[in-house]
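Structure in, sequence out. Go:
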């Protein structure tokens, strides 16, 4: 029997009437493993109404009690780590180890949310004028919503709702319709952690559900992660509707390799960062720029990638799994074909790769292009597949110029033994997250995830202190308490006296 994925509306797990039915498939063979009824407009409206009602009481719950819900939640997530990773691996095709990593990077944010009282602390100054004190509080906004992508179905929802809720908000999650079973388990465990009815809601579906959240006056803030086109739409529509919006979008991440770097470290790191998770990470390295003599290493990088074998999620020898859908595979293959047609040299071609017995799956083997130039489509487009584009540059300055001319700015890395080169790179590069001899610099939750340029629309970033600012409003209070009758007369100026 096919599993039915459920919404979580007004404290109940429900199948919903559905504006249409969406199939969830195993990317290794495209068999249907579950179905979900995409939420109707009225179902989303019910969720908003319930979240609005729940806010009235949830915001009054003492901060340490809210933190205790998060303490129980992070504990439950750890207890169920392998179980969640198995669900995730089955619906995304990720290898079990990679699926565990996806869950773990989310658990870390839930752990950080346990520290919410310190994160919410305001500021105080005594005696800003005679007998007058000023202090500030951070207060929650109300109903917040999150719209998440397919590629991290545990980590990215967990970037959002634990912190938003710990701040005192209520939250509506609209996960990717391509892998909704992992978020469903996350939400079930949140209920088990003791969150009161209505504090968290989950509606599945597509644009229909998203548009209701974007238009509704009672949704105060929207957090989005996904592709550039949808991110721009959500940012423009949400801000036009006077909401607070943060939209994390697509990427094209460059790795600059200096000739003084440790060659073996470069090769190992490039292999994992370019084709790991089938290249479906927003922090994947998709462009490698070899500076000067480092270009001699390209054949060895290709050889190392040629040894990488994709496979099933529970195959311990598999380095990565299939891409998410036949449409995603089609897109990657057409970009590979375009790369060849536009004159890039395809030295390793994964277009024909398949896994025996799973020929109908969305497999793409590791693919390497050399002689890539910035006018080619494979350079300009986010491929989101296991494809590495190799370029060369005469100097670090030339490499920096290429990276800074890219419209994206999610992440970048430099591999070098020179502190001076690394310092120059970190200072001059127009990218929000920089790795030095580290390929995928996704910051831990006490920092924030700080993509720049076309990879992010908004001001406050994900998790860490910036997310607390995003999900709260600051109230500043200036107070004087009289301990005797003071008859100094009215103050006719703006100065505090
Ligand atoms: P997507 O944009 O197709 O979908 C993301 C979410 O938006 C889903 O929940 C989807 O249902 C919804 N959506 C899709 N089309 C919509 C529309 N027309 N109107 C309203 N909502 C719509 O992205 P995806 O394919 O699920 O995820 C991959 C993309 O996400 C890549 O571009 C990747 O770089 C990006 N990503 C970025 C980050 C980051 O931090 N910058 C992190 C992860 C993924």
């Amino acid at each position: 029997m096919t599993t039915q994925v459920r919404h979580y509306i007004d404290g109940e797990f429900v199948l919903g009437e559905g504006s249409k039915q969406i199939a969830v498939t195993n990317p290794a063979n495209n068999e249907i493993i579950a179905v979900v009824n995409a939420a109707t407009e009225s179902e989303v409206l019910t969720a908003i109404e319930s979240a609005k009602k729940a806010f009235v009481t949830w915001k009054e719950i003492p901060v340490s009690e809210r933190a205790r819900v998060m303490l129980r939640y992070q504990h439950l997530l750890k207890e169920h780590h392998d179980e969640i990773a198995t669900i995730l691996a089955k619906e995304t095709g990720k290898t079990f180890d990679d699926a565990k990593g996806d869950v773990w990077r989310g658990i870390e944010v839930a752990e950080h949310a346990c520290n919410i009282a310190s994160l919410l602390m305001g500021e105080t100054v005594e005696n800003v004028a005679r007998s007058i004190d000023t202090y500030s509080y951070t207060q929650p906004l109300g109903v917040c919503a999150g719209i998440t992508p397919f590629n991290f179905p545990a980590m990215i929802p967990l970037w959002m709702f634990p912190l938003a809720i710990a701040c005192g908000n209520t939250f509506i999650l609209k996960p990717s319709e391509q892998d909704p079973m992992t978020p469903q388990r996350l939400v079930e465990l949140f209920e088990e952690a003791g969150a009161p009815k209505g504090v968290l809601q989950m509606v599945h579906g597509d644009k229909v559900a998203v548009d209701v959240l974007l238009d509704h006056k009672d949704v105060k803030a929207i957090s989005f992660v996904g592709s550039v086109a949808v991110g721009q739409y959500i940012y423009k529509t949400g801000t036009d509707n006077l909401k607070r919006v943060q939209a994390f979008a697509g990427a094209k991440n460059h790795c600059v390799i200096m000739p003084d770097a440790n060659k073996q470290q470069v090769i190992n790191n490039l292999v994992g960062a370019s084709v790991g998770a089938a290249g479906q990470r927003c922090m994947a390295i998709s462009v490698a720029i070899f500076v000067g003599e480092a270009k001699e290493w390209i054949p060895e990088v290709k050889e190392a990638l040629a040894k990488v074998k994709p496979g099933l999620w529970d195959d311990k020898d598999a380095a990565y799994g299939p891409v998410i859908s036949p449409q995603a595979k089609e897109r990657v293959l057409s970009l590979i074909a375009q790369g060849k047609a536009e004159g890039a040299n395809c030295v390793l071609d994964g277009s024909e790769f398949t896994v025996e017995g799973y020929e109908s799956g969305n497999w793409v083997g590791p693919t390497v292009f050399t002689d890539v130039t910035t006018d080619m489509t494979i350079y300009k487009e986010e491929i989101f597949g296991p494809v590495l584009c190799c370029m060369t540059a005469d100097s670090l300055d030339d490499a920096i110029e290429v990276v800074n001319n890219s419209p994206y700015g999610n992440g970048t890395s430099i591999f070098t033994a020179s502190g001076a080169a690394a310092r120059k790179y970190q200072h001059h590069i127009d990218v929000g997250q920089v790795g030095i001899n580290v390929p995928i610099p996704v910051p831990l939750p006490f920092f924030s995830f700080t993509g720049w340029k076309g990879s992010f629309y908004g001001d406050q970033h994900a998790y860490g202190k910036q997310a607390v600012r995003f999900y709260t409003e600051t109230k500043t209070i200036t107070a004087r308490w009289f301990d005797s009758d003071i008859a100094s007369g009215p103050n006719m100026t703006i100065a505090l006296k």
